[in-house]
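Fold this sequence, please.
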Amino acid sequence: MNTENHDGQPGAAAEAEKSAEAENLAVAEAEKLRLLEAWAAALATALGLDLGRSSPLDIQAILSLAGVAAHAVTRPAAPLTTFLVGYSAGLAAAEGADPEVALATASETARELTTTWSMPNDATRS
């Protein structure tokens, strides 16, 4: 089927197909986010954590930070980075820091480090 118009440009059928693909992708992403929110809520409950309004969980921000670490360092750095950022923020909050500020500070520190960090030469030796 030719989806181009007489000028060789994408026709209405091609545009409609692209629009449908974009909509399907958006629906899939929304479903993935709902799944992650449900999982986070269940895990938080199992761990005895209250993720109410006092400590909102920004899943998109966490996934973004994980992606930065995975691409800048190596894929396994993603869960390690998010764990350490959360641990750092949790310790700071336990010492009286605002949880949102502590998380933002720890996240920004990790993001900045990914732009400047390189593996030390002696780290590859056993």
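The mean pLDDT is 85. The chain is about 65% helix and 0% strand.
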